[in-house]
Design goal:
The protein is α+β, with helices and mostly antiparallel strands and about 290 residues long. Helices cover about 35% and strands about 20% of the residues. The model has no long low-confidence stretch (mean pLDDT about 95).
Length: about 290
């Protein structure tokens, strides 16, 4: 028997559609991709159609007001209540539909070659390769073959921009940087500039659905807090808030519950399990 004592990276099995095989040891599957550093609003698939989702948001709002979630800081409860309006679910889901439409239009435009052919998509995987849902974590951009007829543009050419960056700059996806899946410093600062411009200009989703629109991660957290069967409020809070926030303006760690005090364009997120490693890797002040 052979036994090696070193840590393995093991992940749960996930179902995928088998498209074809290219040879005896290379099956080709459909692999879902989660575009990193960007978070668009959810559609109805996440929490149901607007009436169903709104009922969950209404329960969340009630619990924030009646003391059920007293463990959450008062300032966060006030912030969320102001955004959990009677039409919060409808606005959020409609923003998710619009974001999908804008993304499809972006793909159609940027993946069309001058000869009207269709480009492939280049995927650039990140430090954390697969998320808990089995999705490939990556940046996406148009693929250039590098041939004489399809040369790779210079690095600073707009054609090299990622779709992640485009969605953030257009205001249809909020900045959603999660350690360790961070871009290189030049690309990171380009992304931060795009996020700041979108926030300052209230572009995209903020323009069409208002500044009180729940961001994707806020919507998901509120849905979890509004679960119908609530056995343990502390457990619901722990499920809804699993990441710490860092203010990129001064690298100050603001924790899980004070993120709203940081502009959306300046938030960096760290999973609880990665916190100590991130403190050292990012040289966060103590």
């Amino acid at each position: 028997m052979v036994a090696f004592d070193f840590p393995r990276t093991l992940r749960d099995a996930r179902p995928h559609s088998l498209s074809r095989i290219s040879d005896g040891d290379t099956p080709v599957i459909d692999q879902p991709v989660r575009m990193v550093s960007v978070d668009t609003p959810e559609k109805a698939e996440y929490a149901g159609l607007p009436p169903t989702a709104q009922a969950k948001l209404d329960r969340c709002r009630q619990r924030l007001q009646d003391g059920t979630y007293q463990a959450l800081p008062e300032a966060l409860r006030t912030y969320l209540v102001e955004r959990l309006t009677h039409d919060a679910a409808e606005r959020h889901i409609n923003a998710g539909i619009r974001a999908s439409q804008e993304f499809q239009a972006l793909l159609d435009r940027r993946l069309t070659r001058p000869d009207e052919g269709r480009r492939k998509v280049a995927t650039v995987p990140t430090g954390e390769l697969i998320d808990r849902y089995g999705r490939l974590l990556a940046y996406l951009a148009p693929w250039f073959s590098g041939s004489a007829s399809d040369p790779l543009p210079p690095r600073d050419d707009p054609q090299r921009r990622t779709f992640n960056l485009d969605m953030v700059e257009a205001g249809w996806g909020a900045l959603f940087l999660i350690y360790p899946s961070l871009p290189q410093n030049d690309d990171l600062n380009l992304l931060l500039g795009a996020a700041q411009a979108a926030w300052d200009g209230r572009r995209g989703a903020w323009a069409e659905f208002g500044e009180t629109l729940l961001l994707g991660y806020e919507y998901r957290a509120s849905i979890k807090l509004g679960v119908q069967q609530l056995d343990d409020p502390a457990a619901a809070i722990a499920e809804a808030y699993q990441r710490h926030c860092v203010d990129l303006r001064d690298l100050r760690l603001v924790g899980k519950f004070d993120y709203f005090q940081v502009p959306p364009s300046q938030r960096l997120w760290i999973w609880e399990d990665d916190l100590e490693q991130a403190r050292q890797a990012l040289d966060l002040p103590t």
